Amino acid sequence: MALNNTTNTLISSVLTPPVKAFSNPVISKIAAPLLWLSFLTSMGALIYYQIETPQWNWAGTIRINGFTLLIWVTVTFFSAIVSTYSKNYLKGFKFHKRFTLLSLGFTGSVMVFVMSNHILALLLSWFAMGVFMARLIGVNSDWGEAREAQKFSQKFFLSGTLLLSIGVILLAFLTNHFTLSGIIDNLESVPFHFLLIAALLIITAAIIQSAIYPFHRWLLSSMTAPTPASALMHAGFVNGSGILLALFSTVIITSNTLTLIFIIGGLTAIIAQFTKLLQVNVKQRLACSTIAQMGFMIMQCGLGFFNAAVAHLILHGFYKAYLFLSSGEEIANNAPRKPLDLKINAMQLVVILIFGALGAGLFTLLTGKTNLTDSSIFLTLIVAITVGQATYNSVKQQSLTFVQKVIVPSAVFIAGIGLYALLLNAVTSIMKEMPMIQVPHSLTVLQITFGIIFLLAFFIMKSGVYRKIPWLYVKLLNLSQPHHKTVLTYKKVIK
Description:
By secondary structure, the protein is an all-alpha fold. It has 20 helices and 2 strands. The chain has helices spanning 2-15, 26-52, 66-89, 96-115, 119-137, 144-175, 180-185, 192-209, 217-220, 227-237, 240-247, 249-254, 258-276, 282-302, 306-325, 346-367, 376-395, 402-430, 445-463, 470-479; strands at 56-58, 62-64. Strands 1-2 form a two-stranded antiparallel sheet. Helix 3 (66-89) packs parallel to helix 15 (306-325) and helix 14 runs antiparallel to helix 17 (376-395).
């Protein structure tokens, strides 16, 4: 019997081919070191630029300044993190090589975009960003829902590129300059109605990419992408609107469209915060959170603080990349639980108001934004709300004692405000060569009214009152649904 068993084992080992361990493609092995090298090079160049301030311009086509290097540092860092994470996460994935090449292509297109001075390079790189990201969303082409998500998102990205192209080319022909710097320097030659049209087209292109309402559904439908792709999307791609609006800040300000941007961003932030509370899927909840944060970023642009919007997108990138790459930790094999009671009692409201005031005071002290009659007061409010939300999310699931529940959130909140303020100061210094990156303006009645409505809606959201209003609950739930062909429950018609 033993001899027979031995013989069978030997025969089986000969006839059965050995099982090969999953290995990463060569490009996936070198991508992470390449990106880390790019990050370190960009960081070194940024430090050198801050010391020497060299003039890096080539034939009017390429322009490298502090802002360019800042975005290079940011995007290469996020890409390097995602690439390093992906080496193990995607090991054995059929399309790992495709994912790596698309990620590198996306990173490269962002870097080209921020250094482009000629409008042709600017528009082509913006187009490439959308193409690469759409392909990343549908990287698993064997999956029907992923293919549908790719097609769905691609329609939005192409539409945004078309609108941006029309707006920029219109300005180019009216100023007779085909470089970004030339257009900005000669805006006075553009009739106001054409300037307004171009600004609206550029704004629309920006809010499409950032999934601002009513263009949000592509982001909700993109969860078919692997988690590393989602991290790159939420940490890098959606932030592109902040970069675009910063580059065209002069166009936005001179066209008197700041209030419009402010209101669009505010409505998005509130609606997305509401819809986030209705999600049971981890990635969908993170997607709604991203939409809300993009709303806050657009609001900052609408206040005339494009430098603050850039600081916001950097912090959001760090925060959201971490949340997506660690999202698996939130998944538990438990029965569905009743949502937490979010009702705010009187004592909690007092605590919120006290620490909100302390945070606002600290931000004012560190940034010097003390004018209560201009848009800087709203900037302080947005920062306090944003940091407060991040603080709540970071400590809500921690098992803390009563004393710790008082000390830990307070410390995290104050530290967050300080970090935000210091980063804003650094970004402002780096972007000092760019025109109109910080132009506070006097508050209008419309802005004040909307600000009051915004605050009321925020506290209503936290009170959980919407759950007692069936039609509102259903409306918000429907508003937060992805395209039906991009979810697993989609049933294909069998012919």
